[in-house]
Specification:
single chain; 175 residues; 7 helices
């Protein structure tokens, strides 16, 4: 049985860039420690947008260009980047079908015991990918380490944790 850690969108724009926050900056050392101490496969996602972002549905609801492909804001934050050993999965939506498909292939090769998610933002991409993984692998335990996540707001973070808990996603280290 294998364990997988998914590091969601720990990118400069979400940490200290255009959509950054003090809460996001505060989790960086915890994320680094979690990656360093994890025994299993570590995967990374990377929010990825192109020049047409403002014409997309997301751009209409969140009119702040961010994580534009090949920009500094799109890169993983330096502390996380230096620990990366696998190529990030670029995703154009909140949830990554590519991640779900990869996890299914991995599960066929060796059963997955647990998928743990950490990263940004709890109330958008972390929750979307947690639900997506539950849909692809309904019998695999999905866990979110709340101490290694931050939401758009502290209230949004807590609301997302509560919603995931109701949907049988295990929440660890929730104050």
């Amino acid at each position: 049985m294998q364990n997988v850690l998914v590091v969601v969108d720990m990118q400069n724009d979400f940490v200290d860039g255009v959509l950054g926050s003090k809460e996001a900056q505060a989790i960086v050392p915890k994320v680094v420690e979690k990656i360093q101490n994890f025994h299993g496969t570590v995967l990374f996602t990377r929010d990825t947008h192109k020049e047409d972002y403002m014409q997309t549905q997301e751009g209409k609801y969140l009119p702040v260009p961010h994580c534009m492909h090949n920009t500094q804001g799109w890169q993983l934050c330096p502390a996380v980047e230096q620990l990366r050993r696998t190529e990030p999965l670029d995703k154009v939506t909140f949830g990554s079908r590519q991640l779900g498909e990869l996890l299914c292939r991995m599960d066929l090769q060796e059963a997955i015991n647990n998928v743990t998610l950490i990263g940004l933002c709890t109330d958008i991409c972390v929750i979307s990918n947690a639900f997506l993984i539950k849909a692809f692998l309904p019998e695999v335990t999905v866990t979110v380490d709340a101490s290694c996540c931050a939401g758009v707001t502290p209230e949004g973070h807590q609301t997302a944790l509560n919603a995931m808990r109701v949907c049988q996603i295990q929440i660890e280290n929730d104050k």
